[in-house]
Write a structure and sequence with these properties.
Layout (H helix, E strand, L loop, with lengths): L3 E3 H8 L3 H9 L6 E3 L2 E5 H8 L21 H15 L2 E6 L13 H8 L1 H15 L9 E2 L5 E9 L2 E12 L5 H14 L4 H8 L3 E2 L2 H39 L4
Parallel strand pairs: 7-8
Antiparallel strand pairs: 1-3, 2-3, 4-7, 5-6, 6-7
Helix pairs in contact: 5-6, 5-8, 7-8
Amino acid sequence: MDDLLTTRQVQDILRVDRTTVYRMIKNGRLAGVKVGNQWRFHQRDVELLLGLAPKSEPSAVSQQKPFENLPINCLQSVQDVCAEIANIGAITTDQNGVPLTDLSNCGQFCALIQSAESGKKACLAAWHKISKQTDERPQFFTCHAGLQYARARIHLDDAEWSMIIAGQFYTTPPNHPVRDEEIRQLAARHNLDGDQLVEASHNLVLLDKRKQREITRWLKKVAGAFEQITQERADLIGRLKNIAAMSNMGD
């Protein structure tokens, strides 16, 4: 076990003031644990900041597995409420488009598509495809069923961990005779009832330009909220692990 440093010792080593140390704790750059009313820090974590400790031995926070910090139940609840208010579908996936949450506010059209195994696979392939977009800002994307989707990336410690995808809407009015025929072909491809799928498609949402802009802003805000929730949970887990490590020092 490495030595525990006081706040003053960290200030002296990093040559920063106390406020900067507290800011580093808050933004997750420095893991610390409170002993009574005083902060204590592992010497290794401080050395990592200075590049003096080998990176092959990560600190308590960085040792956590991907998605260990994602509070899925919390994200699902927030996602459900936001998707219902916006009247669109939404899902949170990993960085490759693999779902981490259930699909929120799933309309009848998408529910029918996903009732077929081949339809479900087509949706997964579409989410994987949107994950490969290089644009940082949300951009609209046409899925395999002809609907529009957009995504915002969720980062933790400057790395992309996941993304939130919003969709199951149109951005331009469909030509119904042409679109109905496309949907019948889609239904045949997935062995679904064509009339039922066409009827469900007539209830899909059409977003005007103003609403499209709102959705892209909404995505970025929700992704930002998810990042904050995840970072706070990562900080908490890191501190709990440090406390557990300190408790074992006398064993």
